[in-house]
Amino acid sequence: MKIQLNGEEANVAARTVADLVKELKLESRMLAVERNLEVVAKSAYETTNLETGDRIEIVHMIGGG
Amino acid sequence: MSQDIFKVGTHEFTSRLIVGSGKYKDFETTKLATEASEAEMITVAVRRVNITDAGKENLLDYIDPKKYTILPNTAGCFNAEDAVRTLRLAREAGNWNLVKLEVLGDTQTLYPNVVETIKAAETLVAEGFEVMVYTNDDPIVATRLEEIGCVAVMPLGNPIGSGRGLANPFNIRVIKERANVPIVVDAGIGTASDAAKALELGADAALINTAIAEAKDECMMAEAMRDAVRAGRKAFLAGRMPKRAFASASSPTEGYIWD
Fold it and tell me: Which residue of B has its CA nearest to A36?
């Protein structure tokens, strides 16, 4: 399905946030996911379904002051 | 001297130097300079993951969150909404509750947008964050941010990355004397004497990034900052002598051989 992933259109097979993190090979990373401006708790990855057109942001920590 | 603890909200530190992790040439240097600084708290920024290059090395592969207190920041945010969103994500990513709030006014000066900073601080404090807040060297605003419930107020010494030292030392002093929360000089420190001066004025800590990351020898500068912060703190606690208009002889003024 088509979603907006980090600001760009993406076609993903995942149906849940948990699937998406796996599909992107990000499972081992310290990150956070936002779905349509709401933070998705890690405990809710499995139960949070993706829908066409969702705006997903996946962030991590980088160097900053 | 009994141990001099730096308390911020529910956290306690022995180091009064907070370092940033930006602008380093590589992660290895970030790690080595951070170790050399003996800082216990390090700021990080929150950004989109590069989806197409997920296997790439990550800052936190080098800066161990078990060893350091990670202080997520809102660098690059120009309004309260983006800052709050950013820190909600950071909290979910690492379970970090202690955060650095900064809401900027424009890209040229990177001066804080105080109105948006206050708005964001109100929301974040209400949501249970422990907020260390970057702001102007304005005593009135510092008091307001403390009243909102921020756990530390962090006035700038000068613009971010400018390395110009403390523009207004008197205000840092005034802010400190009125404050009941820690005051951290954040931004503007260019070299060791600036850091020492900040602590001599009574600032509880200094937050330094560019001055270390842009030094020719990053690790040596990290050590210099570590020592400067310690020296400044000790001088503050020791209580400096008064300044005098005229000389005051250091050697006894009696028992001269010609008397």
Answer: B85
